[in-house]
Amino acid sequence: MISGLDKNTALVLIDFQQGLRQASFLTPIEDILQKANELIHGFRKAGLPIVIVTVNPAGARKRSTRVTSKMNLENIPAAFFELMPELDVQPEDLRVTKHTFGAFFETKLHESLQQRDITGIVLGGIVTSIGVEGTARQASELGYNICFAEDAMSDRIALSHENSIKNIFPRMGEVGLTEEILETLKNGTV
Q1: pLDDT score, position 18
Q2: Residue whose C-alpha is closest to residue 176's, from 144, 142, 153, 143
Q3: Strand order across the beta sheet in which 9-14 lies
Q4: Is the pTM of this model over 0.70?
Q5: How far, in Å, CA of 120 to CA of 98, rounded?
Q6: How far apart are CA 167 and CA 22, in angstroms?
Q7: How confident is the model at residue 69 (pLDDT cuts 50, 70, 90)?
Q8: How far apart are the first and last CA of the chain?
Q9: pLDDT at site 132
Q10: Integer Cα distance of 6 and 144 in angstroms
Q11: d(CA 184, CA 190)
């Protein structure tokens, strides 16, 4: 349930990339994209920032040799890193490329949000227990008020998704549905 949103809240969407389209998710990717686009349109209408985060593991400074040896980055096609074309991204949207699970580590995301006086974020994306949770943990440590759009995220593993939604996210913020978030945004409940 969503009790309110900060007046200065940004929408942060994680890893809607072509490379993840072929994976088998608990919720069909088309349904997740629809909810993400509903959030985008609501935030755009409210004049609030939209942040589109993608991942490219190449370039992370603090990568262990063990992890790097398991990842053959040279064989990843360039199309893997492209956004899913169904996502309604506009030129004015903030774009962030992360190199690890979380979107704040070694990126300018925190600085960009601080320049806009953002105190809260709404999170959605794929994969729930990896990119979304990694970003949420960092956002929590930085003091952001977090709202999770449960129906705008998915995972490959039911237990992982459920653990994030039921056990981890409620410790960092509020968990609700896109419809609730948009209603709160529309009513200006802060």
Answers
A1: 87
A2: 153
A3: 94-98, 50-55, 9-14, 120-126, 145-154, 173-176
A4: yes
A5: 20
A6: 28
A7: very low
A8: 14
A9: 98
A10: 10
A11: 8
